[in-house]
Amino acid sequence: MRPMDVSEVWACRPIGYRATGMPELPSATPFALLHGDRRWIVLAEDPLARLEEADLSCFRFHRSGSIPPLRPDLVGFVGYGHPGGLRDPRKPSREPLALPELRLVLYARVRIWDRDRGLLYEGRREAPREIEARPSLLRSGPFRARRIWDSDSPETYRRKVERIRSEIARGNVYQVDLTRQEAWAYEGSLLELAGRLAAADPAPCSALIVEPDFAICGASPESFLRLRSGRLTTRPIKGTAPRGERPAADRVAAAWLRASPKNRSELAMIVDLMRNDLTRVCEIPSVRVTTFPRLDRHAHVMHLSAVVAGRLRRPIGLPDLLEGVFPGGSVTGCPKLAAVDLIAELEEAARGPYTGAVGWLSHDLSQLDLGMVIRTAWADAHELRFGVGGGVVWDSNPAEEYVETQHKAASLVRCLG
User: Fold this and answer.
1) Number of neighbours of residue 126 by Cβ within 10 angstroms
2) How does strand 357-361 pair with strand 119-126?
3) Is the pTM value of this prediction over 0.90?
4) Within 13 Å and on the Cβ side, how many CA atoms surround 231?
5) How many Å apart are CA 13 and CA 55, to the nearest integer?
6) Residue 246 DSSP label
7) 4-133+144-416: which CATH topology?
8) For a tag site, which of 17, 219, 267, 416 has the least CB within 10 Å?
9) Domains in the chain: boundaries
10) What pLDDT score does 55 carry?
């Protein structure tokens, strides 16, 4: 992509304290909506340029006006198999939907809601238009969907878990994140699905990206990477329990999850892996585990999570960052290389955007906010897919692992059905 000068003018106005829920969304033009964060909503419309490689050096921004604290210069996603990290080597038995492995988009109009301060920032950008204006994928009408296939039956998934346990017994791996996929035929408006999912599962890394050829709609609970003031933070999730139907049952489930040796060991191994990954891109003495473990409650499940942080090494570019930490350890396993190879052997379908990262970053990589692509569906004009999975360790019960994936898929399946 040739060098591009971007002129950016911002305005700010009050919207009332803690005002606004889901903003009104366009249906005819491509857009990206990032929501679910307690404080911020980002809506970007009218794409000017698309980046499908990790080099950000082509952009030069000239800003004026009431510049917001966040600078979402480029919004988009990185797929699991992006070659900047570990290329997905499998030959899938099922043809994947046609999505790029990386897409970062410069939009002409950006709105940022600061719900804590009751402010709306509106930005307009002018730059050479690199792409042809095309209508979005969205169609009208009531949303309906029916399941076409599941990549694994409970029995095939159990056999794969047993295979992973045998590799653990041989000392080849310690943990592997095994996933499966479901495909659904659909008709009608994906905005209706997005609204259902936002109401049913208001997760902190929720996103909706609509392009002319595909859409991504998700409610991810996991923050993969966040960069502010030079500090890079990751918050891996491992360990899952279903929510109790009553408060007393919920407290029992939470106590069991906190005390579970299997779930705590899952989290401990991934935290160690992520700490090692961060030392590849951060100043080594600065990398610390700041929280371990903590309990996160969501609509249908609860998780154990931890926080690992360090000071980002400078200078560093996006290719170096992806090579150092991508894909995230919580969706691969450890050791990472051996886990990725076993995943490629066992899983029936290429992951595509699933277990990649979605969010925004500034052009100079001084800020970024990327959520893990889980609890997320991706679609073309006729078919929708989503993936679910979990970490397999020696203590895993093969018969229970498929059930865990059903708990994790519950909110998406309810919204689809």
Assistant:
1) 13
2) unpaired
3) yes
4) 8
5) 34
6) S
7) Anthranilate synthase (3.60.120)
8) 17
9) 4-133+144-416
10) 85
Q: How many helices (H) and strands (E) does the chain have?
A: 7, 21
Cα 124 from Cα 121, distance rounded (Å): 10
The span from the CA of 257 to the CA of 252, in Å, is 9
In 3-state terms, what secondary structure has residue 349?
A: strand
Strands (E), 312-407: 333-334, 357-361, 368-372, 376-379, 383-392
Q: What is the DSSP secondary structure assignment for residue 244, as one 8-state letter?
A: P
Residues 218/193, Cβ–Cβ less than 8 Å: no
pLDDT 10s digits, 94-153? 677 889 999 999 999 999 999 999 999 999 999 999 988 899 999 999 999 999 999 999
Annotated catalytic residue: which of 101, 182, 211, 222?
222
For residue 347 the two structure tokens come to 């899983």
Task: Assess whether 160 carries a catalytic annotation.
Answer: no
From the list 238, 336, 404, 408, the catalytic residue is 238
Provide the pairing of β-strand 301-311 with 288-297. antiparallel
DSSP string computed for 76-139: EEE-TT-TTS-------SBPPP---SEEEEEEEEEEEEETTTTEEEEEEEE----S-----S--
